[in-house]
Amino acid sequence: MIENEISYKIRGAIFAAYNELGPGLLESVYEFALTYHLKLERMDVLTQVPLPVVYRNMTMEIGFRIDILVNEK
């Protein structure tokens, strides 16, 4: 699946979750709803994936995280 197809499904899932839940909730609630919708679409979804920073061949585990990783993108 190419990036445009993935982003189309992500946008649809975002709108579905937001329309059902409404505004004002914590980010974690929307993240859960978004991943739920994407998994229904049979997408490969990972949440809170650690992202190290590499500087001059030195890897720093400094707490960056990818909120949602979809189909390894």
Key attributes of the depicted protein:
73 residues, alpha+beta, two-stranded antiparallel sheet, 4 strands, 45% helix, globular
Number of helices: 2
Number of strands: 4
Low-confidence stretches: none
Helix content: 40-55%
Distance between the termini: 11 Å
Rounded average pLDDT: 94
Kindly provide the radius of gyration, computed on alpha-carbon positions and rounded to a whole number of angstroms: 15 Å
Summarize the main sheet.
2 strands, antiparallel
Residue share in β-strands: 15-25%
Structural class: alpha+beta
SSE run: HHEEEE
Name the shape in a single word: globular
Count of discrete structural domains: 1
Q: What topology, given as strand order, has the largest sheet?
A: 1-4
Would you give an account of this structure?
- Helix 1 packs across helix 2.
- This protein is of the alpha+beta class.
- It has one domain.
- It is built from two helices and four strands, in the order ααββββ.
- The relative contact order is 0.18.
- The chain is globular.
- The mean pLDDT is 94.
- The chain is 45% helix and 25% strand.
- The strands form two sheets. It has a two-stranded antiparallel sheet with strand order 1-4. It has a two-stranded antiparallel sheet with strand order 2-3.
Question: In short, what is this structure?
Answer:
The protein has 73 residues and is α+β, with helices and mostly antiparallel strands.
